[in-house]
Amino acid sequence: MKKSDKKKSDKKNKLYLSDKQPLSTVGKLMLFLSYIVLFAWALIILLPLADMVVSAFNGRQEQYIMLNDNFQFSLKHFDYLFNETLYLSWVKNTLFIAIMTAVITLIIVSFTGFAYSRYRFKGRKASLMAIMLIQTIPTFAGITAYFTMHSVISSIAPFFTRQMMLILIYAGGGIASNTFILKGYIDSISTELDDAARIDGCSSMQVYRLIIMPIAKPMLAIIALWSFIGPFMDYLLPRVLLTNPESYTLAAGLFTLINDFRTMNQPAFAAGGLLTAIPIVALFIVLQKQLVSGLSQGSVKG
Amino acid sequence: MGKYNEFLYDDIGNEYARKNLYLLELAKLQSKLKTAKAEEKLEINDAIKKLIKNKKNNPYNLELSSYKSKEKNFLTTLNAKVKVFVSNLDKSIDGKLKKMEKDLFISTEKASFYKKYVPLTHDAALAYERNCIMRDQLPEIIQKYKTTKDELTNAKAHLKQIDVQNEKKVKLEIKEFASKQKAIFNEGKLKLKEKRHSKLISDKALKNGIIELQKKRSEAINLKSYESDKKSTKELIENKKYVLNKGIRRELNVLKSNISDLRRKTPIELSKTKPYFSAITVLFPGIGQLLNKQALKAIVFAFATLFIYVIAIPYALGFGNYQGSGISGLISLAEGGKKVDKSLIFMIEGIVAIFLLMFSAALLMLSYFDVKKVEKDAMKGIRPRNWFESYSKIGQEGFPYLVSLPALIVTVFIVIVPITTAIMLSFTGMDPKHQSKFTWVGIENYKLIATGSGLAGSVFWSILGWTLVWTVCATSLAIFVGFMLAIIANNDRIKGKTFFRVVYLLPWAVPAFITIMFFSIMFSQNGSITTLLDNFFNIQLTAKTDPFYSRIVLILLQTWLGSSYVFLLSTGVLQAIPGDLYEAAQIDGATEWQKLKRITIPIVLFQTAPLLVGQYTFNFNNFSIIYLFNGGGPFNPSKYGNLAGSTDLLISYIYKLTMENQYQSIGAAITIVISLGLMLFAFIGFKNSKAFKEERL
Amino acid sequence: MNVVLKNIGKKYEGREEFTLKDINLEIADKDFCVILGPSGCGKTTLLRMIAGLNSITEGDLLFDKKRMNKVPSKDRDIAMVFQSYALYPHMTVYDNMAFSLSMRKERKKVIDERVMEAAELLQIKEYLYSKPSDISGGQRQRVALGRAMVRKPSVFLMDEPLSNLDAKLREHMRVELVRLHKALGTTSIYVTHDQTEAMTMATKIVLMNDGKIQQAGKPDEFYNRPENIFVAKFIGSPTMNIIEGIIKEGKFVADHGLIEITPSPNDALKLKPFEGKLVSVGIRPERFESGGEFGDTFSATVDVVEMLGKEKILYARLDNGSELVISTPGHFEYAVDEVHSFGFDVGAIHFFDTVTGLRIN
Predict the structure, then answer these.
(1) Which one of B213, B235, B262 has the shortest CB-CB distance to C108?
(2) CA-CA to C206 of 20 to 30 Å: which in B37, B111, B485, C361?
(3) Contact, C226 vs C350, CB < 8 A?
(4) In this structure, are C184 and C245 located in the same domain?
(5) Which stretches make up the ABC transmembrane type-1 domain (chain B) (predicted)?
(6) ipTM confidence score
(7) Would you tell me how many other CB atoms lie within 10 Å of the CB of residue B24?
């Protein structure tokens, strides 16, 4: 490179190219402070989680997790988790419940969302409002009744397990808010599309199936995802409703590892928690935009 | 005696002249009577009486009855003629065609018969025009049916004689074609990739391009595959079948809707003046509709009758119950029953019975008003809807109800019945000593709560106090932290935003029960945080045994958990704020602080308000964190009794009451109390939110 | 197929007044009928009623003598092009165009032939496998047209299909639509608020306002013989000059007294019953002359001159300040603030009854 060229490029590098105005000293200080705050909070978040990860892999940890300087990489807690506990069947149960919840929610809500968005029928506003209000009542107001209802139904139809009851509760509990969200999304789809489809020869059912549902897929996916994640996150209902450790979900099952003296094993809990959290966290990171927009859609768009 | 109008009306209020001269005269006299002076009244009344007395000999009525008898004769001879006509039809034709041919024959005959009587009655006019429509439109449909049928037969015959040899050849050709298409596809793909390499097109364009190529290829192969004689003949058969079925039905629907339009425009004339069908059939939905000659509705409502008398009422009387005894079980609550009888089951079955009865009552009302409306309309001149009209109306307007049905069933089963049960339960005395059998105690439980007395009620107010403190502190702190972080991280000059966002997402993404449980471990006596604090700062944190520290730690923990959600939410909103707003403010001379105060905060708050309200209600009922962290402890029996710990929220207290100590009734009462409060709170929140106001519900 | 509307009326639930009332219209087979009107006049509602998307409150809608009032859209054998095009975003262009036929279980081969034919005609073959979101507005417009054409419907409905295109493209598509209509010969009903589209494309124009038909007929009738003041003002750009006044001794005298017009003998006959009554005169900007047959002239000050190339538009002011718009050939020289004398082409003057707004001559 020639000298003059170099000079030029030097000059180029020194040029102030940012669109923004240069910072004053106070501004620089503020920026520095901002970084400190952000990093501090990041540390606060990461340290406990890191501790969990480390504990899960630390072969030196016994039954109780304690702070100790010794670290020895080992998979023995995972080994314990898979072989000594019912972890795998918990995973299976949770997946079963989550998938069924998502499917049932989708079926029900896709219909109601469509109906509430596209049709003006009697009792429309009142019903939605009523359910929205009723749903502020905590789910477990009904728990005494759920027990009894389950015992009555299962004695008539033995295949109706407690897990199914749980699925129905999850699916039923989300109907109003999910309908509200989906309705908002479908409202944003031009009704001219419906008109065009009707002229092209579609019945109401075909408009729903061939036109609206494919277009509403992004929102349906979000609703499905939320309903799917719900059972992973919930502790209360499985704990109350499921009595047999064989039928526990992950949340209820993992809790037995830290609160029951017979099965106490905190590092195994850390390991199990880690395994449970990883796929969900991955999902959240990949889909964070959609998930957040799905959340706010309910409020902003209605 | 009933009153008659001089004119007949249709459903949009158009006037039609009466054709029944007798009724017309009567109506005229009646309207005269209204405006007449006192002395004339007598005379008019006499005239009316005379008219009614002579009803049988009234010239119009005579003509009408002669028409009726002629019509009867005509119909009997027509019947015979139709039989002959049908027997002369080709035997090989199918039922559908036969019916259409028959209809055509009948309509031709009828049209010529009724033509003469058009001026006499509206019914005859309707019959005439209706048959005219059928006479005019049916031949075309029959023709179409016949040709399509012939084509179908030919195609079917062709399918049997397909050249197998040729078929094989074509199959090979198609295979070859497919591989050629694949080559073309690959070539196209390569070209696109080259273009991408030389940066002529973007990644997205490349992806779209490949998708397009793929579609093109599969479309081409698909099209080619129809060159197979077999496949295309099969397709032809499908198509013809469709035309025969749906296509013909479509044309018939046009015909039928033409007829139904006619019915709307031709009034009906009745001598009836009181809607008595509705009154006498009120208890039996379906019969009234049958009397109104609405067969489809009658069938639908017959199911309602069936439901009422076979399911709802017997169930309410105690038949077919699992254990209870219908409504009466709700009153007795299995008192004095067998040992296995449970009050709770009696109660739930009683509630179900009540719902069934309410539903029945609604059906009865629906039917009553339906019959009454149709009758009243008919007296005005509006014809009752026929089968086709009812069917298309139900099909159109019933759709949203039909598709919402699953939601309704699940909601009733999962939400309404359990909540009603909880409400009922709160008026009973279900406690550890009265588990299988309990009785009504009135508002006893609520009294206990209000006065703060009794085993369970005594701690209610102190728990409520802590619950409120907790809700306000934990939520507000989380909102504050999340919001502050969002604003700081949203600064354009901050680098590494992705990193911060991913990290800040974690508390939300990791299932809360895992983190709470793990924090619980870390804060325990030998846990890492306790140890750390002890080692470095020499602080003995007794988070699990000291109520005060326990509460502080819980609030901080919830801040840790909840700020993540608020952060993500506000970041989303912040990014959506248009930049020119800030630029405009900057030009107007606003400082950073003013911009924050006047633009950022109001916008974010406005947009996220309903969700933030949701956060408060969420924390009010945040069972997991309390229960999983320390089980509501530390326990302090002198202050909180044996049932609750010092960090218990109402929700976890209810849990302990109902699930762990079986004080179901007082638990239910507390649930109802807090639910009412929350509902009010939520209602105000929803009502003021933008979403609800602008909602075009 | 011929389309007949008899006394069609529309009333929305919860409204006192009829939105549309007494619409009578006959559209002959192969007509290209343009329904024209300002926004909110009910033209789109009328079109949607013909399509079966809105219900008909009263009256008859007949397609070839069959009443269609309650027949669902899908059974009416119509096709419609929407203002927003309403292309199904999740389907390719090809699938969009094939959709209606595949709903009817048409044979694959027939579908392909029809789609290809339409694509050829509309020059969209290259985009057949793209999604609607990947093509430009003009192309989408063509796809929407193609989708309607593929059906081979008996009636073609279009709801302001060109309003989302830019001026150049619109001009181009106008010509193409006329060509298409010539080729297909399908009865078409076209809704627009743009008078240029109406004048250039229609074989029949229906001008609506306030839920009523103002005038129906051939395009040149609209320009040369507007039935009432509304039509006169709506059609033509720049707008027709309307001068209010009365008839005095067989002559028209403007309210401000600055203009007097002697009508032609034919018009004078028709104006006889209006002696002494309020009458408005309408004159198109290009129908002013320097002298005039009967020597009725007025002088006006040129206020603003708009140079459009082939013509100049003068905004002239009378002494009392009222304004007239006058169009003159582009090569005439006018300067601002000059005073000129203008006359009228007596054969081109429209007389209206000011009270009822109806045409007199």
Answers:
(1) B235
(2) C361
(3) yes
(4) no
(5) 464-685
(6) 0.84
(7) 18
